């Protein structure tokens, strides 16, 4: 780890101001950034910890929508949305291990947009709105490829609004070493249609499988997916699975997610 | 009622109190006054010429004490290999130099070529980044077959090629040819035994401390065998005589073989501390461990079994390539030869066996012993092959094994060893009793109802522990003796310190060893402590590896305790005014046989140290005895293992539903510790079978260089084990009748897992001959695609 200054503002406004400094970097739960710092792969001059900003923490539920503060940990999400959005609760409760879940935050995960992270699938499948200190961004516009988002420099995710589907499920097939998603599929059935978001598989990061969405919107059953597949082109191929394997898993897991959603 | 004292008692491990309450003292917990910190600069290319290293900017950085490069080690010995294998033409193996810091060339990713010593770790890291170097990358050889091809890039320019040795063992060519010519059926299998990284929980650490006052160096290190390190480093690398060199291996958080060896970092901190007259500490990061701890396994094998028309095994031949990596690690050369070839008979009376092994240099981290060391490789080949033969012949895999079991002992195999004892029928009977084989079809149907394929995998294993005797292994090329030693020091008030050459890094010696002495003396274990790990305190023993501690060092301890008893009886005889021949020792009391005259243990020990009423003319005062014990043979534990798996045919994911192990470890001193050892071994075997894989790309870059890509087994990956060690054929040649249990689980479990997966796939109509480990979801899925 290189030396750095650390600031811990207590308001979004102060955090934004602090992030205006040269080589400043926001620190959420630190589950990606801290290991990078330890490996000397990152060298910010100033770390701006978002940990003490109460206004970006907590979960509220209002009819058809849950709103989660960007600084809310996975463990809190798992607990707080257990009744209001069980599929999201299950997803949050199965990220990493307890240490990760009690430090890592939804805002940090969405800002990082790791191609194997779980939350991007939930946000995209739910048709979430990413709320920042300056604007609201639809999930469909937010995710722009591996580790790439619509966020501007210094922009902070203050909350995430997720419409609650009628039925939903997330099925994750874990990479054997990291236990991140080798492929993860989130299926969400709304009154006006079905959304299917896939994480872990594509070189472009999280994506919607529109062909499956169309088939499921007419008939929300695993059978509706028979014969459908995603092309292996553009799928990640690595030590743990080829592009073909990941493409195959997308179809298998989507069926399982539909079955699990009931 | 189960025994709660002495041999056979399932006593809880006394050392766990300190480990579980944070009172353990590991090497990194030790700091010395004025200590400096060391950071190694390691090669990021697999093969390259060092054109220049400019340390001038780095030397001017804050806190830097000294920067070392390979030049500082010119004229100083390289890291030695402890076993010289003679090849099949009678020539010694090729033994390239292994400098402490690379000289001229770097030969694997992670090869250290400079080291910074600074006042703090951060300053050392900063300075290491400021070293300017020019290393010209050269083509690397990674694949063993490519390394042996004509014109391949050479790992060592001064050698003729990349072949370390071409070795064979076993029956003569005519006998092998005849067996295969007469075969009614031949089963052939080509397989890979995957390269592993040991990954002990505690990474390696070394702290060198030089004392100018008496010209003594102390090395604190994460080692399994402090005396061996002292000998190798003192005599062969740094030229420090033993009386000026102390090696301490304090609490060590897991070894699994990878902490047997003498490493460059140990020699470096010892050397550097003498140069700068300050202590020097190095603590491995986990990333460094992946590229500097010796790796394990990495064999590629073709194996063939000849059977007659009645399915009797009549011949076996193997052809193995064994990866040595870029340099010969301390015991690397012995692993694919004397620890592997000698085990190829397995549990079977195959009359003709020939083992061929070619060891190959590549631009990868050195490969050496890892839990099982050669024996898992042998067992995996043989037991996969026998399973394949059963499938090809359409016979029951257990029946085929039983039919070919060795049943009379001692049994001299065609591959140089003689099994003293065993009962393979008994362990197989026990296994069948444990696994409810008749109920398997019903369980398979239940799995099918859930959309899963269920498989049952069976295998046997034989292993060899406590490698010995020294005069034989010396002829085979060992450059060390393989005895062990113990000193039993009885104190004046009767308490006992036992100084042992074995080293405990998870094995529970501090609990089990006192049980033996307590049994012999009839006193309570709480009066006995084990001292280990410090060359200045313990006799010259050879440390702990190869499941040797109880069989070899435990035997030395028994011999020393026998000497104690003999002397104590003389003292007691004097005190009781009786002949020592008439003295009996029972329950900690010396009694004149047939009388009620007795003296207590403590009376005798006090007399030894306060010899006012003492036969000084006949015996010396004091009560302390040392024994060295050199076994006459290996011990040969054996067993039968079974694994049931479910395979998800849609994803290829394998889950282990049950695992049973029936082992014959000879006599057992502490059954709870034995059970724990078997659990740990099976856990690592399952890790190898399903998860772990060390992967290099074609340029020699280590792809699985962190836990993000190197899959370790976790609690959720292993089932609750059924283990049994009630089948006992005591070892015939050591005083305790014990064998060894530390590696059995890792040796016996991988074939059971893979056999089960193949069986599961077959039940779904997938006729897959073999899947290389790790049997990952992706590999299973690919195999199912045909």
TrEMBL record, chain A:
Transmembrane segments: none
Keyword Flavoprotein: yes
SMART domains with a match to the protein in the record: CO_deh_flav_C (SM01092)
The entry's keywords: FAD, Flavoprotein, Oxidoreductase
UniProt-listed PROSITE patterns: FAD_PCMH
SUPFAM superfamilies: CO dehydrogenase flavoprotein C-terminal domain-like, FAD-binding/transporter-associated domain-like
Top-rank taxon, per record: Bacteria
GO molecular function per UniProt: FAD binding; oxidoreductase activity
Residue ranges of every copy of the FAD-binding PCMH-type domain listed in the record: 1-167
Protein name: Carbon-monoxide dehydrogenase medium subunit
The organism of origin for this protein: Salipiger thiooxidans
From TrEMBL, chain B:
GO molecular function: iron ion binding; oxidoreductase activity
UniProt xrefs under InterPro entries: Ald_Oxase/Xan_DH_a/b, Ald_Oxase/Xan_DH_a/b_sf, Ald_Oxase/xanthine_DH-like, AldOxase/xan_DH_MoCoBD1, AldOxase/xan_DH_MoCoBD2, AldOxase/xan_DH_Mopterin-bd_sf
Keyword Lyase applies: no
UniProt entry keywords in alphabetical sequence: Molybdenum, Oxidoreductase
Keyword Methyltransferase on entry: no
Domain of life: Bacteria
Annotated ranges, domain Aldehyde oxidase/xanthine dehydrogenase a/b hammerhead: 21-139
PANTHER family: ALDEHYDE OXIDASE 1-RELATED (PTHR11908:SF132), XANTHINE DEHYDROGENASE (PTHR11908)
UniProt protein name: Carbon-monoxide dehydrogenase large subunit
Organism: Salipiger thiooxidans
């Amino acid at each position: 780890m290189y030396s750095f200054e650390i600031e811990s503002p207590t308001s979004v406004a102060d955090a934004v101001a602090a992030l205006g400094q040269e080589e400043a970097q926001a620190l959420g739960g630190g589950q990606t950034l801290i290991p990078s710092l330890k490996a000397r792969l990152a060298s910010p001059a100033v770390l701006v910890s978002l940990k003490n900003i109460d206004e970006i923490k907590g979960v509220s539920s209002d009819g058809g929508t849950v709103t989660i503060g960007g600084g809310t940990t996975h463990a809190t999400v798992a607990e707080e949305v257990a009744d209001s959005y069980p599929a999201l609760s299950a997803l949050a409760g199965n990220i990493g291990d307890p240490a990760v879940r009690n430090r890592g935050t939804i805002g940090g995960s969405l800002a990082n947009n790791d191609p194997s992270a779980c939350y991007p699938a939930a946000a995209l499948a739910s048709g979430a709105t990413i709320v920042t200190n300056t604007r609201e961004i639809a999930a469909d516009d937010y995710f722009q490829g591996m580790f790439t988002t619509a966020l501007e420099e210094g922009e902070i995710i203050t909350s995430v609004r997720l419409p609650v589907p009628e039925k939903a499920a997330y099925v994750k097939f874990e990479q054997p070493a990291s236990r991140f998603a080798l492929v993860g599929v989130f299926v969400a059935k709304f009154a006006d249609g079905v959304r299917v978001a896939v994480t872990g598989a594509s070189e472009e990061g999280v994506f919607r499988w529109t062909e499956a969405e169309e088939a499921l919107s007419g008939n929300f059953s695993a059978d509706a997916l028979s014969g459908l597949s995603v092309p292996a082109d553009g799928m990640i191929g690595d030590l743990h699975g080829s592009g073909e394997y990941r493409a195959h898993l997308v179809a298998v897991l989507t069926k399982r997610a539909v079955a699990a959603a009931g | 009622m189960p025994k709660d004292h002495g041999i056979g008692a399932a006593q809880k491990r006394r050392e766990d109190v300190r480990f579980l309450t944070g009172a353990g003292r590991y090497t990194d917990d030790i700091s010395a006054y004025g200590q400096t910190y060391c950071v190694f600069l390691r090669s990021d290319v697999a093969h390259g010429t060092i054109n220049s290293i400019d340390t001038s900017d780095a030397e001017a950085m804050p806190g830097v004490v000294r920067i070392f490069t390979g030049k500082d080690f010119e004229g100083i010995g390289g890291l030695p290999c402890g076993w010289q294998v003679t090849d099949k033409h009678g020539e010694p193996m090729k033994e390239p130099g292994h400098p402490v810091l690379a000289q001229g060339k770097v030969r694997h990713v992670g090869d250290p070529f400079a080291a910074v010593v600074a006042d703090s770790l951060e300053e050392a890291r900063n300075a290491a980044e400021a070293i300017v170097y020019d290393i010209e990358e050269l083509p690397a050889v990674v694949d063993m077959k490519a390394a042996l091809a004509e014109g391949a890039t050479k790992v060592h320019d001064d050698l003729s090629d990349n072949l370390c040795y071409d070795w064979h063992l076993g029956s003569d060519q005519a006998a092998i040819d005849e067996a295969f010519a007469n075969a009614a059926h031949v089963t052939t299998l080509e397989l890979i035994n995957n390269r592993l990284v040991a990954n002990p929980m505690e990474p390696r650490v070394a702290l060198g401390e030089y004392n100018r006052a008496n010209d003594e160096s102390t090395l604190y290190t994460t080692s399994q065998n402090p005396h061996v390190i002292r000998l190798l480093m003192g005599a062969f690398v740094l030229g420090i005589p033993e009386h000026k060199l102390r090696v301490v291996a304090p609490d060590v958080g897991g070894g699994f073989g990878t902490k047997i060896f003498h490493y460059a970092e140990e020699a470096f901190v010892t050397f550097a501390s003498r140069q700068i007259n300050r202590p020097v500490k190095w603590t491995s990061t986990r990333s460094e461990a992946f590229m500097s701890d010796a790796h394990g396994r990495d064999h590629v094998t073709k194996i063939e079994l000849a059977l007659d028309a009645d399915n009797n095994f009549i011949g076996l031949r193997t052809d193995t390539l064994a990866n040595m990596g870029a340099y010969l690690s301390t015991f690397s050369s012995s692993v694919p030869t004397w620890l592997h070839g000698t085990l190829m008979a397995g549990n079977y009376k195959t009359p003709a066996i020939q083992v061929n092994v070619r060891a190959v240099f590549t631009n990868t981290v050195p490969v050496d012993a890892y839990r099982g060391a050669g024996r898992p490789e042998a067992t995996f080949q043989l037991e996969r092959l026998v399973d394949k033969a059963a499938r090809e012949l359409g016979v029951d895999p257990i029946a085929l094994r039983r039919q070919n079991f060795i049943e009379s002992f001692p049994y001299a195999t065609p591959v140089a060893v003689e099994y003293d004892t065993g009962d393979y029928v008994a362990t197989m009977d026990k296994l069948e009793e444990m696994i409810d084989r008749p109920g398997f079809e019903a369980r398979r149907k239940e799995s099918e109802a859930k959309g899963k394929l269920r498989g049952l995998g069976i295998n046997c294993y034989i292993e060899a522990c406590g490698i010995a005797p020294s005069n034989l292994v010396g002829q085979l090329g060992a450059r060390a003796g393989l005895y062990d030693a113990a000193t039993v020091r009885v104190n004046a008030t009767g308490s006992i310190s036992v100084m042992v050459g074995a080293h405990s890094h998870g094995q529970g010696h501090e609990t089990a060893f006192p049980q033996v002495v307590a049994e012999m003396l009839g006193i309570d274990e709480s009066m006995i402590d084990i001292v280990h790990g410090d060359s200045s305190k313990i006799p010259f023993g050879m440390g702990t590896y190869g499941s040797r501690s109880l069989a070899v060092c435990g035997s030395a301890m028994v011999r020393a305790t026998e000497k104690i008893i003999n002397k104590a009886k003389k003292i007691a005889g004097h005190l009781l005014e009786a002949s020592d021949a008439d003295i009996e020792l029972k329950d900690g009391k010396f009694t004149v046989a047939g009388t009620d005259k007795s003296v207590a243990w403590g009376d005798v020990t006090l007399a030894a140290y306060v010899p006012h009423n003492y036969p000084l003319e006949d015996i010396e005062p004091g009560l302390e005895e040392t024994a060295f014990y050199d076994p006459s043979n290996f011990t040969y534990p054996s067993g039968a293992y079974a694994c049931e798996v479910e395979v998800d045919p849609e994803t290829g994911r394998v889950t282990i539903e049950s695992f049973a192990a029936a082992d014959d470890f000879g006599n057992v001193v502490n059954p709870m510790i034995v059970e724990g050892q078997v659990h740990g071994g099976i856990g690592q075997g399952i890790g190898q079978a399903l998860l772990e894989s060390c992967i290099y790309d074609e340029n020699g870059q280590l792809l699985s260089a962190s836990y993000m890509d190197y899959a370790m087994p976790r609690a959720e990956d292993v089932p609750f084990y059924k283990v049994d060690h009630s089948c006992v054929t005591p070892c015939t040649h050591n005083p305790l009748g014990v064998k060894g249990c530390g590696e059995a689980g890792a040796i016996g479990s991988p074939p059971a897992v893979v056999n089960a997966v193949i069986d599961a796939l077959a039940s779904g109509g997938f006729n897959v001959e073999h899947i290389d480990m790790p049997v990952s979801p992706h590999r299973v899925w690919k195999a199912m695609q045909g």
